[in-house]
Amino acid sequence: MNQLKKLRLRFQDYFRHYSQAHHYYDGPYHGGQSFYSYYLDDEGMRVFDGPFRYQLSSISPYGKAFRNEAEGSFLNGLKDGKWHYFFKSDTHRMKLTVDYVKGNIDGYLYYEEYNANMVQNKASKTKISFRSSKRRLIGEVAGLFQGHKFKARLDAEGLPHDKWSTAVNDKEHGEWEAVEVWNHGHLEKAERRLFTYGRKEAITPYMCQKLNQMIDEINHSMLCIVKHGSLGGLSYIPVA
Predict the structure, then answer these.
(1) Is 233 part of any domain?
(2) Lower CB density within 10 Å: C or N end of the chain?
(3) Across residues 206-211, what is the average pLDDT?
(4) Is residue 56 part of a domain?
């Protein structure tokens, strides 16, 4: 039994607890297939309310097969609760878990990406968790970022704060760590610590830019799978 069939059975049980005003839809949705519940407003327009699932398997303009999926729930037309997004192609795979509160990204997020770079003949992995408050990243950001251990912090306003670091081991420099020290959005220090050679050197800060690139990927590759019911994507990190 495939996932949509299982979901239909689960929805049918779910709808038993709804009033007669609720209906469910099973059919085409933005090029793919969707199954969701809704009610009609005073003007006869559908308002998404309750569980939702969408999946699309297609071919890109470049002839590459890919698959998109999204699953979550709506509350009076707005995304609410935990949502899961998934994208897969031959060389690229992304997963995203997001907490919504009345259409706002608010709470826990987990992002996972695997990208096989066929040009450089190597793959990179990202497995990173963070939190948001009304679409802004706040608190600790930690995990594996593009194949390297990564740790950062943002203050309550979403500004970079305290120590940011990433650990790298490459052929050119051996083992080294990039460190940036921030004070509520103002950079105090950026350096590379070369453990193999026992020295430090100043560098141009780059970690906020890297995180903003990840946010851009999330906004334009993942959250756009189902745009309906959202008050916007993740806010970018402001840097003075």
Answers:
(1) no
(2) N
(3) 94
(4) yes
Does residue 94 lie in a domain region? yes
Is the pLDDT assigned to residue 74 strictly greater than 80? yes
User: Residue 178 sits in which domain range?
Assistant: 20-220
Note the pLDDT of residue 5: 60
Question: Is residue 233 over pLDDT 70?
Answer: yes
In a domain, 230, yes or no: no
Is the CB of residue 85 less than 8 Å from the CB of residue 222? yes
Give me the sign of the Cα torsion angle 113, 145, 233, 60: negative
Domains in the chain, number: 1
pTM of the full structure: 0.85
Q: Give the tokens for residue 105.
A: 């990204």
Task: Using alpha carbons only, give the angle 135, 68, 74 rounded to the nearest 5 degrees.
Answer: 50
Tens-place pLDDT, residues 153-195:
999 999 999 999 999 887 777 788 999 999 999 999 999 998 8
Q: What is the pLDDT of residue 240?
A: 64
Assigned token pair, 182: 């921030």
